[in-house]
Amino acid sequence: MKKMRIVVLMGGKSTEHEVSLLSGQQVVANLNQNKYEVFPVVISKTGDLKINSILNKKVDLVFIAMHGNFGEDGTIQGMLELTGVKYTGSRVLASSIGMDKDIFRKIMIAEKLPIPKYLTVTKNYNIHKIIDKMGVFPYFVKPVNGGSSVGASIANNLTELKKGLDEAFKYDNKVLIDEYIDGLEVTCALIGNDNPKALPVIEIKPLKGKFFDYESKYTESGAEEIVPAKLTIPLTKKVQDLAIKVYKSLGCKGFGRVDFILKNNIEPIILEINTIPGLTPMSLLPKAARAAGISYSRLLDIIINNAIN
């Protein structure tokens, strides 16, 4: 049987460059060598990519293992659309909406889905107007575009808010300020196209920080991840059903992951969607798949089949 020729794209011009390399390396290592001829392609931090390095290989599919700007935001997807090469994951529009948390939230409001009270600000913000609109501290501050909790922080007072805004503006020219909601952090991964399947919900307990920050995500013993989450059956189903609604409202394809906070540990509040969730050994999607009886290699097969179909 002829092997499918697959390019695995990784790296990229993003703050998540290193994480993307880990994801890409893991994908390359776990693609079934009996089924696929694999060509790893690393995009540098400056964004260098010779598209001929893909086209000249006459590939059947590009597996996008990139996170953050220029990888997860529809940019690389648009380029591949122009070349006519098939690729994994969501298309251009869903990818760009998923990356822009402000636009994503507006769609959630239109769909009448539960999100935190929030405010989006630019660099000419008035800090006292922020406090007037948001009310009592604490707040959660993060760049509108970005992932892996880069530039995110909790602000308990005016000084921490100023510091958090300064940090977040290093990564984007728009910043999201959420009400801080105390409760369990959970996430629900999905696989599929028009009729996605929700995988087991994961409960996240950060061990190194106050929330699931970059260090908690990508260092050993940074967080305890309970799969499946210790939730009641009705609450688990509520989280999974909401995740499917989010996924379908954006028109996502292939795979994804929706993050929640459980207000008072009982009410799911949608935080964001990841249209290319991490695929590193420590990432949540592979762990959820494993809990559903799906090996990493089989998960990659499913993602590829979703892209081909």
List the helices and strands and how they pair.
Elements: E1 4-11, H1 17-30, E2 36-43, H2 52-55, E3 61-64, H3 75-83, H4 92-99, H5 101-110, E4 118-122, H6 127-134, E5 139-143, E6 153-155, H7 158-168, E7 174-179, E8 183-191, E9 197-198, E10 202-206, H8 214-218, E11 223-226, H9 233-250, E12 255-263, E13 267-274, H10 284-291, H11 296-308
Parallel strand pairs: 1-2, 1-3
Antiparallel strand pairs: 4-7, 5-6, 5-7, 8-9, 8-10, 8-12, 10-11, 12-13
Describe this structure in words.
The relative contact order is 0.15. The model has no long low-confidence stretch (mean pLDDT about 90). The longest helix is centred in the last third of the chain and has 18 residues, at about 235-250. Strands 8, 9, 10, 11, 12 and 13 form a six-stranded antiparallel sheet that branches. Helix 1 links the parallel strand 1 (about 5-10) and strand 2. The chain contains eleven helices and 13 strands. It is globular. It has about 300 residues and is of the alpha+beta class. It has helices at about 15-30, 50-55, 75-85, 90-100, 100-110, 125-135, 160-170, 215-220, 235-250, 285-290, 295-309; strands at about 5-10, 35-45, 60-65, 120, 140-145, 155, 175-180, 185-190, 195-200, 200-205, 225, 255-265, 265-275. It starts with a strand and ends with a helix.
